[in-house]
Amino acid sequence: MNRIEIAALISSRLEEAATEARQNYAATESDIGFFVVDNLLPDDLARKIASAFPAKEAMVAKKSLRERKAIMAQMSECAPLVGEAIYAFHEPAVLNLIGEITGTPTVEADPFLYAGGISAMGRGDFLNPHLDNSHDKDRARWRALNLLYYVTPDWPETEGGNLELWPAGVGGDAVTIHSRFNRLAVMATHGNAWHSVSPITADRVRMCVSNYYFTPEPMTPGDQFHVTTFRGRPEQPIADVVLRADAIARGALRKLKPGGVGRLTHVNGPAS
Questions:
Q1: 67 — phi, psi (to 5°)?
Q2: Nearest-angstrom CA–CA distance, 244 and 57
Q3: How far is C-alpha 242 from the chain's CA centre?
Q4: Phi, psi of 249 (to 5 degrees)
Q5: Can you say how many angstroms the Cα of residue 130 is from the centroid of all Cα atoms in its chain?
Q6: Is 146 helix (H, G, I), strand (E, B) or coil?
């Protein structure tokens, strides 16, 4: 299937779920607005997308105190269905529905997939609590929404890899969103939107299709530019100190070099 056909299926399901999704987002918007939609695509299509994922070993490994996962944003290196699934979320009908649900009518997709694309996580992989980079790759638009579509069949919550939201900050309690098969999770991104991915405990791979949406203005008034900022989990006090210092150093470096240091790797060329 192509992106237009997939987008039509996504739009149809979003329209069905719109009332509940809008209510869920509104109820959480004062902290970290979010909603989920289950059974986003027909089961057989969702399974085909999962089967089309490249092997985790063929993706770019990211290993540090901040995170451990594999990513890919170069869609020319993936099976066509994977790219079509990603860019289906860029179709106007999908953008408009997500914007309507979240109250962000000026939302725009990112053809460069900056920090988006696909990810794969196996045993021991994780993503520590963090704030997403506040802008797109050119610092022209504000990052507004994070769309995570989970495609691993039969993935139980007990095996980790779940999205965790920290509405009261990393010192508070986390809200766990199960990364269940064929579920779309949409969350707001702003200067208080701390989130993480719990460590994987299974001997298999959890797969995710990721997109970011952007807006001309920040999601919360007074928000300021910031680099991706990591913290340690509550049970990691030493890691927290190290990661706080790391964030300060990287933020200072970005002020000196607004374009960043080195070549961007987690970015794709424009959609064809």
A1: -160, 160
A2: 30
A3: 24
A4: -65, -45
A5: 12
A6: strand
CATH numbers and ranges of domains, the chain: 3-225 (2.60.120.620)
pTM for this model (two decimals): 0.93
Q: Per the structure block, which two tokens stand in for 83? A: 């790219």
| Amino acid (1-letter code) at residue 178 | H
What is the end-to-end Cα distance of the chain in Å, rounded? Answer: 16
> The tokens 């199960």 sit on which residue?
178
SS3 (DSSP) at 1: coil
Q: Is residue 261 predicted with pLDDT exceeding 50?
A: no
Per residue in 153-182, pLDDT (tens digit) is 999 999 999 999 999 999 999 999 999 999
How far is the C-alpha of 121 from the C-alpha of 86, rounded, in Å? 18
Tokens of 236: 């990691």
Backbone angles phi, psi at 257, to 5 degrees: -130, 85
Residue 51: both structure tokens together? 């089967």
Helix (H) or strand (E) holding 136: none
CA pair distance 187, 29, nearest whole angstrom: 9
Both structure tokens of 96:
């408009």
